[in-house]
Amino acid sequence: MTKHPHAQGGHPGGTIKDVYHKIKDSGEGRQHAHQFMQNKGNQLRLVFWETTGGCNLECVHCRRLDVSQELMKDDLTTEESFKLVEQIAEIGDGTILVLSGGEPLFRPDIFEIAKHAKKQGLTLALATNGTLVDEAMARRIVDAGIERVSISLDGADANTHDNFRKLPGSFDAAVRGIRNLRSIGMEVQINSTIAKHNVHQVKGLYKMAQDLDAIALHIFMLVPVGCGVQIAEDQMLEPEKYEEILNWFYDISKEKRIQTKATCAPHYFRIMRQRAKEEGIQITPQTHGMAAMTKGCLAGSAVCFVSHKGEVFPCGYLPVEAGNIRKQRFKDVWENAEVFKKLRDPENLEGKCGICEYKKVCLGCRARAFYDRGSYLAEEPYCMYQPKAAAKKHN
Ligand code: SF4
Ligand code: SF4
After folding, report:
1. Which of 142, 152, 268, 370 has the least C-beta neighbours within 10 A?
2. Whole-structure pTM value
3. DSSP string covering 297-324, please?
4. For ligand 1, what atom is nearest to the CA of residue 367?
């Protein structure tokens, strides 16, 4: 059984920036673009679709419990996939569809589906492990109208990455894939899952992303889920270490050498505000880019995940099913699922997140809360912050 499937190591959400600029540069202007980013109406912005459960790798941190090196029998058919992209497009403007997996390039009909999605007006990104991207594949990706490709690199050297991905040669193959894409102008985002085994390499990853001419580096904080549950105990970083890494990430974001994003580390949005306050600067799109206009966890309020067999989840790491597109219309699930309604209101948060002054911009990781406490509304276990209201209580 696929419990809560895996996309390729994170969110190619950088394309939201492109949508923002498209709106800003159109007749609608800056204010409309700001409203788009703030998303007060919980408009769907990003859908991560696990196009297949099959993958050629067996990564240690993968959220899938079953690993298939072939396409899976219960993957959505081409016809069902067409219907899904039509239904996603029907919901609204500017939605980005991320074709992920498993390994999306395993699907022989992936470009047919991509072209159909493009025709419906969706913005497309592809999340791949990069190992199958030779020159011909890179060309097909560009020709299908995909606007950004994210590739996972979980180490700054082959040894670290290959050990994690359980396939010798996968680092070199991924780097080759990145070069093939860059050589024909495709935007490449590097996703890196940070855990104990590679935390000492974060600076190396930052340098490598620049050397490879990537447009963005997204560091993803491990969520103890799927196969990842087995490694969580010894691979999860301590909250203090998260704090240190996120502070370092804040520092490098100011260098503006490359787009940087701390993914699934919602308390980055708290750290950003604390640091800006210490520095006496206001957070604006000019000073802090897109991070100034969005918030920490977007699961269920702007983002959702569709599994390879049509189940809809708030994100790929939170196994609380909102519905199934094999049985329901996607719009109905997005608008009416109970779990989405609860996630959209920060007043529902519990524990210290519930009394935290940063809850509206952070929300904490709902998936880590779920795994730690069995409730997706519980407090985020990997944030070391003590909200002011909690401190008062203890005094
Ligand atoms: S619950 Fe939110 S922060 Fe956590 S993994 Fe999902 S999208 Fe990321
Ligand atoms: S306590 Fe919760 S809401 Fe507050 S910063 Fe930490 S994770 Fe975010």
Report:
1. 142
2. 0.88
3. --BTTTEEEE-TTSEEESSTT-----EE
4. 1
